[in-house]
Write a structure and sequence with these properties.
By secondary structure, the chain is α/β, with parallel strands linked by helices. The strands form three sheets. Strands 5-6-7-3-8-9 form a six-stranded mixed beta sheet, sandwiched between helices. A three-stranded antiparallel beta sheet has the order 2-1-4, covered by helices on one side. Strands 10-11 form a two-stranded antiparallel ribbon. The N and C termini lie far apart (about 45 Å). The structure holds adenosine-5'-triphosphate. Belongs to the ABC transporter superfamily.
């Protein structure tokens, strides 16, 4: 199974150092890892650095991957939608990128399966430019998945989705990671999503890694006070699930 380790990762834009000393050895395939932290902490920059879209110090160690340079895929936060392509064409194009134009039956079956799982079959013949923000986000997830990444970096993939679809998408990603062995890193602002769907969590603040490990060990009142500047606690709900309750901003 694929695994990613980060060794002393840094990144800069021009003279501004954005990230430094990011290190972890526990990003395993088969589950979801949340990457959390305040606005401008450096989460997207970390993803771009892991995906090789930004140069910088440190090393991304990838083990167990079979698809070479295409193993890691970054799904950005803002996905443009102005191309004059239908949803289906755009997903087919994504599936065929980097390979020949011959389309095999199993590829079409794979696309249908993803469209169904994300409940967007009815959008197949709509043009990308006429989709809503949430619809575009679902299509972007489909485009990322049909390329069968072994490591998928999803930058706030549920930010435009309604409550039902947020839960559907995260539960689907959890199942997909478990069955395919893919490692999925998800930048999230909703910490309840991290608590519910992500086995591990990494906390980034001011370009530094502040904590990392099993989600329940990482999302603590002390971390929330320190990093997010809120007084908050994690309690068990009546169904036994951990729920984050924010009481106030920290003094
Ligand atoms: N292309 C760029 N050029 C210069 N500075 C940039 C660029 N992209 C991001 N930055 C800066 O890098 C810092 C980290 O940004 P980044 O997008 O990685 O944060 P983030 O944690 O993903 O934030 P958010 O939660 O708000 O999406 C910010 O101060 C941002 O202004």
């Amino acid at each position: 199974m694929v695994a990613v380790a980060l060794e002393d990762i840094g990144a800069s834009y021009g003279k501004h150092t954005i990230l430094s000393g990011i290190a972890t050895d526990f990003l395993q395939g088969g589950s979801l890892t949340a990457v959390i932290g305040p606005n401008a902490a450096g989460k997207s920059t970390l993803f771009k650095r892991i995906a090789g879209l930004l140069a910088g110090p440190g090393t991304v160690h990838l083990t167990g991957a079979t698809s070479g340079k295409d193993a890691i895929r970054y799904m950005p936060q803002d996905t443009g939608g102005n191309a004059v392509l239908t949803v289906y064409e755009s997903i087919l194009l994504a599936a065929k990128q980097g390979s020949g134009w011959r389309v095999r039956d199993e590829e079409l079956i794979g696309i249908d399966e993803i469209l169904r799982a994300l409940d967007i079959q009815s959008l197949s013949f709509r043009e990308l430019g006429e989709l809503s923000g949430g619809q575009r986000q679902l299509v972007a997830i489909a485009q990322a998945l049909v390329r069968k990444p072994e490591v998928l970096l999803m930058d706030e993939p549920t930010s435009a989705l309604d409550l039902y679809r947020q839960i559907e998408v995260l539960a689907f990603m959890q199942r997909r990671a478990a069955t395919s062995g893919m490692a999925v890193l998800i930048a999230l602002h909703d910490l309840n999503h991290a608590l519910r769907y992500c086995d591990q969590t990494i906390v980034i603040a001011n370009g530094r890694m502040r904590a990392g490990g099993p989600t329940a060990d990482v999302i603590t009142p002390a971390m929330l006070r320190d990093v997010y500047r809120v007084e908050a606690r994690v309690e068990q709900c009546s169904r036994g699930r951990p729920v984050l309750i924010v009481d106030s901003t920290a003094a």
